[in-house]
Protein 1
Amino acid sequence: MKKIVLLSILILLSIPCCMVKAADAPENLAIRAGRIWTVTDGIITDGVIIIKNGKIQAVRKKPDVPAEIEVLDFSDKDVMPGLIDAHCHIGLSLDIYSEIDETVLAVTPDMQIIDAFNPLADDVKKVLRSGVTTVLLAPGNKNPIGGQTAVVKLFGKKTKDRVLKRAAGVKFSLRDEALMPDRRPTSRAGLLALIREELNNVKAYKEDKPDLRMEVLKSVVDANFPVYISTYTVDEITSAVALVDEYNLNAVLIGAEQGDEIADLIAGRNIPVIYSPLLLFSRDKDLKRVVNMADGGIKVAFSSSAPETSLSDLRTSAITAVKYGLDKEVALKSLTINAAQILGVSKRVGSIQRGKDADLVILNGDPLQPTSTVEMVIINGDIVYQRQKI
Amino acid sequence: MNPVKIEVLINFMENPVVMGHKNIILISSMLLLFTFTSAFGDQGIAIRAGHILTISDNPIENGIILIKGGKIEALGQNVVLPEDVRLIDANDKFVIPGLIDAQSRLFVMDSELDESRTIAPELNILDAIDPFIKEYREVLAQGVTAVCVAPGSHGLIGGRSAVLKLNGSKNIDRMVLKADATVKAAVGMSTGNTSSSLARLEHYSSIREALIATKVYMQTKEKADREMAEYNRKKAEYEKKDSGKETEKKEKPKRPARFRSSPASDVLAQVLRKEIPLQVEAHRVTDILNVLRLADEFGFTLILDKCTEGYLIADEIARRKASVIVGPVSTSFVDMPRLEYRNHDMSNASILSKNGIKTALGVSGRDGASSKFITLAAAMAAANGMDKDAALRAITLTPAEMFGVADRIGSLQVGKDADLVILNGHPLDTQTRVEMVLIEGKVVFERKSQQ
């Protein structure tokens, strides 16, 4: 009996303690920085960012911070918005034995990649050091009409903090990988015929007989639901552009490696491109293609296609592009705000602006120098990575 | 020799169709001129540079490098220029030694890397070199003047590697700076993304067996050599006596059985005599430890290649004084996922070098052209804790030392080959461009102004 009383007292005591502690946790945080790369509003030197409830409350030059706010001092460091990897496959328990595509069927628009995402997977935690805070998760390239992509953050206490878009668009693949010997389509021409057939079926679709797949395709044709079309060669890109014209699609190209050959065609329709990791290439001609595309007026974002390459090399892609002639400002935007706009999440992420999510990366130098290191990563105001000194 | 002429020559060689007849005549005369100037006109070149990163010694500000006969004749702030010297003005620029990719596949055809024999030290990568590939010019344009190419990772002992210069020669003998630079081996490689402990043990024990067999071979050979010498001596004696006193009958010495020499064992014998280092590709801790055990047992000079998990056992590697070629710095250079890279860490090179281990960096890319990323590899190592100077050394002097060519290349020192790179900024900066590359005093690359 005595024990129980003691226990109750202890519990009673601990409740207010916990509450005090929760209230103490820094809802407000200020970051003093040598340089703030706002992306949308230039570089602010010796500035401060005030974070409240996970959002950016203020960005300003004069570093006067109210006394009650905890300050992280990075006066000799650089702060930029969290990087956005515009195409990858992490957190999908994708080890060397598993698949991310439903390959028995060719058309699976009802499949949602978010259902396979494990935010606590090892590969998600491990890549926080890369400075990437937001990613587009996508199915693979084996379905002409594949599943739906999602936009998620690599950390978030609650689902709503973590998932920016459960369904960001439908993935199409015009690549050779979508051709299978044992199911339709088996040819490139057949692949396009199949996609057209499916999109045409939307007209005859009656909602009184619900069909999940048709519902999704209907929103693609009728409601501007985005399509992410994976392509590589000039002919695949040309086919993708033809589909966009025929069905008035709200399209984003993934890959589009040879897109610079027909940059005018893509730029003329304002189709953005999520480019493949640059370290997959080695010839000068290929390394310059993304530069040519950006110069040709195409809005470009970078991607890691992880696990194909490492998320740590998202920044390396931009750095390599700069080495091959890409304008530094464009490179920085491609890593952040351009990617956010392409993925339709620029209201929340992609730049350091008042009202946006406090997703920040602190580096020990210019973000576009390969010698700069990520020192700290903040997502929704929470410190999720801090570099250990060796 | 005017670099502009070289540029024209190169353009001609790469786009022969677009050139008119007049130009061809011009080019022919230039070719003649080229032959003359290179053969007779070695009047010397001097480079006046803002920052000379010698690598071996302290950097020199506002110095001069004097080149004669393809070698660095003088270097410093107070070099007296001969009158007829051709002066290259790089007042506001950086000069560094030519870069070396220690893990290159340049000039090597893909198919040549997949040898099927397991213990084949007698194979020589030089027999698989294609000097006609064009990618080398892109690699050269990034400041790489030498590469080490080794047989692939599939054979346990794949063969002998070589250090090649990117001097544009189509004569393989002229490209070779050093043949038999190392004997390349690999242990614990996964196949089809799976690996069993049994297979890894087999790799280790097969190499061990080959080395034990080599020891026996060496003893047998030594014995046979002794017997043969003895026979030769007796034979000479017998023949001498034979011609002298005919009366005294003496037994004719019996010729010992002929020793059958083996090219493979001869190469491994050189390894055991420490004449050629053994370069072993090993990724995982268990495999690296196995290789270190082999080094303990047989006492060869060890270069650990790739050494992906080396940072976890840096003390063990340091204790054996083994050197390491870390690569790739980033897993993006290899087809992923692969078991060998499961614990890949960007700070591997940094940790190893901070433990006093001689650490070189290699690109270890997908193909030959990837060697152009060598400065990126160094910059990424620097970003992950390696000292910037150490990172530069890891792509110049350190690999030169490892491959036994530091008397020729790897640093800017009097007497060394004039293989150097002129850049418009620090070599590890993103926006730095290579302006000019010289190999043995000849301009082999010059950047066009708009590039």
Protein 2
Amino acid sequence: MNTNPDERLDQRIRQVLDQLPDAPPPGSTFDAGRLWEQLRPELAAAPVVQPKRPAPVWWAVAAACMGLLLAGVWLYNAQTNQPTRVEAVHLPAPKPPDGPRPQVAQTPESNKPETVAQYRRQPERTQPGNNRIATRPVSEVGKAETPVSQSVEVPVFPASTPGGHVAQLTVPPSLTPLVAQRTSASAAVPAKRRFRVVHENELLTEEETYRIRNAGGGRADRFVRLGSGNGISAASDEGPTMLQLPLQRKQPQ
Amino acid sequence: MLQQLIEQCQLGNGFAQRRLYDQYANRLFRIGLRYVRHDADAEEVLMNAFLKIFRSLHGFVYRDDKALEAWMKRVVTNEALQFLRAKQVLPLLTEVDPDDPPVTQTDLPDAHLDAEQIYDLIRQLPPGYRTVFNLYAIDGYSHREIAEQLCISENTSKSQLSKARALLQSWLTTNGYEHESRRTS
């Protein structure tokens, strides 16, 4: 309830003006028909502005952009999920060892020209006894039951084989790779370290045994001697040159 | 009914535009005439207002008849204010006029007021008084909105309104309307 007299006057005047007839005030010269005649050409000259609708070409552009974006995402995902491949490359043949060459079994397929095969990167698997590196061909991905899978046997010498994983598989051209059926057991054998720590006496015993067995003179390149070799200095003069790494303790300062 | 008329006007139907014009022309003309006093000026205001209404009708969302009428009245009011600004009438508004008589509170006139006579009295108010009185007392603007519309301060708006009320009261008394307090005493 508004008790302000000014507000009551305003309200009263509003009520009174609402009672005005829907006609021009008395004495006015206003003619609605005449004004419409003036207004109609103006309306015709300026058509009604329709709300702007997006043109179809913009829809097409938007669809193309969306398609490109989706294709890019798909390609990116495809490249991200692609497995890392290890290619077999031919390197110059190293000097073959003088010792007894490991037996390499040949199959009829080995006479075919060598091809560079791509292999999926696998953890290195070695047979403890026969120095084999088992690999899995690319064709086996997703098909574990494929019987024609091939593996390449490469003779590995214990002294020159680095520990850990083999990132690049090197196939000497002088050695004919053995193509054999890959057994599932070889794939299941986990990789093992190729070095073991032995006592000096054990090393001396092995070296003596090797020297006796290869009396004709072969290089004892299978051993790496760590520590002082005073105990075998006389014997080393007769045999092949050995790598001796004397251990020296640092003097505490 | 009116909604269909609006939809046809939005599609640019000339017949519908004419019907809408005929329905509101006189009412809107009166609103314009309250602000600009002369018929020719009010016709100009009304014409510009209808042009703006028809051109911007596509953006209007119809809710009910009152909302449509309020929107059209606001368009006419804005056109009238624009006309007054173009005629440089509104800068004559002053905050303090020392020659004006002091404003005194008046009582409400009796209930028997003639609408046409009140309408004429409002039109005879000075431009500044009339504009502020129309905006505040009849069309429902606040002093803040009036100050923004007319580029004046709120105090100026209040002062103009108070003076307009006082002048209108004195004219009502002069024209034979008694105050309630006098009539009842």
Protein 3
Amino acid sequence: MSPWNETHYARAQAFIGLLADAVAAATPSPPPVAPPPSSAAPAPSLTAPPATPAAPLTGGATAANVFKKIPWKK
Amino acid sequence: MPPPDPSSPAAPLDRLFDPRAFLTDAAAGVVTDPAGTRVIYASHEFTRALHHILHQEKSGVWRDALSRTGRACGRDLALGLDRESTRLGLPALGELPLETCLGFLERTFAAHGWGVLTVDLTDAPDHGLVTAHLTHSYFAEVLADTTDFADPFPAGLLQGFFEFISGEELGCVEIACVRRGAPRCTFVITATERLATVAPFLGRETAEAILARLKA
């Protein structure tokens, strides 16, 4: 690779990084954890046929509870 | 427009996934998605050209840029669903039943034309792995002249979405792709450091073999 290309590629990658950072910056930061459930009403079912669940992880559990229990780092 | 099905009560958030809810104001030259966000239609040529330019600039730039952009969009998607649900007086996204939450993700993929997504939690409880399969992938179809993994954007989108729901910093990689001869595109989501251990085998081993390494 020529020195010109090295410089050009580095600048292109820097540009892409800036672009991605700008997209990320334009996205409001979500809270680290979901807020507690509303006590006003039980969670209604919002979808028609639900996704195929994995039996050990379902049983009416909320999405946040399920995903917080997953041993990601094992 | 077909009449509503009386046996299937209208769900408050269904309009977000209804392709008929995209509005076109031809006089103003404005198209908005069901959430009210202005959008444009990207042609195959646009996507191919962007891929070509970034790939020519430097190998890996396309993957990096699309993955990072997808991650931001995935978090934005989850946040948007969360806000809309709360606005309607419904539980926050993470407090919805698991099936409902994953259903939103899968319907979003389909509604935006990214393909048919299926999330599989079979290996989640014991191995800390979430897998997702994508058929009819937009990128795999459009980037017909590449033999590389074609879906860094959906991978980033899954990463961002599951980071929001779990509150954890996660990674997501595509471990099988139609463009590389697989019958469907497959992604795995888990801790970033675990994904790094299988990076040398991506594209060299099947999805099943890579998952076996992660489970070992």
Protein 4
Amino acid sequence: MIEFRSVSKTFADGTTAVRDFSLVLPSRTTTVFVGSSGCGKTTLLRMVNRLVEPSSGQVLIDDVDVATRNPVELRRSIGYVMQHAGLLPHRRVVDNVAVPLRLAGVGRSEATSRALAALETVGLDPALARRYPRQLSGGQQQRVGVARGLVADPNILLMDEPFGAVDPIVRDDLQQELLRLQRELDKTIVFVTHDIDEAFLLGDQVVILRRGGEVAQVGTPAEILADPADDFVRTFVGLDKARRTLHVEERAGARIVVDGDGRPAGVLGPA
Amino acid sequence: MSDNVFVGAGQWLTDSAHWSGTDGVPARLLEHLGYTVLTVVIAAAIALPLGLWIGHTGRLRGLAVALTGSLRALPTLGLLTLVVLWVGIGLTGPILALVVLSVPPLLAGAYAGLESVDRHTIDAARGLGFTEWQVLTRVEIPLALPLIVGGFRSAVLQVVSTATVAAYIGLGGLGTYLIEGVQIRDYPMTLAGSLVVVVLALVLDAGFALAQRSAARS
């Protein structure tokens, strides 16, 4: 369980990224921070592994304040997947994945075999293991990043816009892969994105943030759609747009779902 | 006249008498390389830790830029004369002058090399749980290596060409042929000595070019 207790962050240049933020992130669930740029979502994520120190308030993991823990050991106990993958360009793919294991003191050959297994878990061709990151496509690099985040089997996985820089088809693939992995692995995932559809797809709990790290609404995707807190949330999740406002119409004897513009979006399946 | 000098230099270089003994080319070459190595090792001991620290922390960057600029502007012969007047005749003078000359490229190579490393990569390494020391030694230095080697390349080249000043105060090296040649008007010897320095510089440069390329590949 991760808990934010009245956390604020004001950077040296005077910008307030987060103001009095409190939230509990239950274990073995995915919490998604979503908002436009400058809403403090990445700042919140980076407080969990102490890449950012809060100006006030506390971040707790299983009731232990992370400020009391050695930052290097803390980071080694948490999986971290970042935007643009953040792979080390001078190391081969398999060695990149093995980094968290090597840092934890696992021997070279065991680390390599576990890294290869992790690459297989995320659906990457083992033939790519000996390549350097720059020889891979953006989507492949992201898979490597996910493999590296998972390889040491951490309880917590931080994902900072991991699929933001890949094309929509690959992103779709990676999202489905993550959902499958999460069903198997049951991690506590903190996921940051600016894409509300991604937030609703992946999140058990979704936190919508406005500028300055203010919470607009917290809830399950269904709760947010059913009862948006205000106009900001309504607009942000797209309830004012045709594609979110669906209704059922009878056509040629079948019941089909139609969006606000009357375009068919799908059919009503058996409940 | 100039033909004679070139022919003379050719004859000088092919005369076996000039390739043995304490005043022979191999001995002078070794002296010269000895000064070069000593200088660059001392300069590296000063410049590398400083440059790496500046590049890693981003502190005192302005000082490094100013320092490299102003040290480069110092005239070596003037500096040598000053140091010799100050510490007296001996090895210290020329070595000190040459160290001052070779610190700037080494310093610049180190801090510019570290600055060239992608901030995202460093942030990623930190996020994975590298200690600051591991960030420096396993991420920043390996990625900065082509520029660090480049710093050595220009430092060594400058020192090799400038170490001829050691002969100015009678310490030998390949500069001996130049200084003595001028003094006794033996211009073929002066030219032959310069040619040896040029060839040495070119060979070393080619070696460093290879080293730089292999550093960039890994």
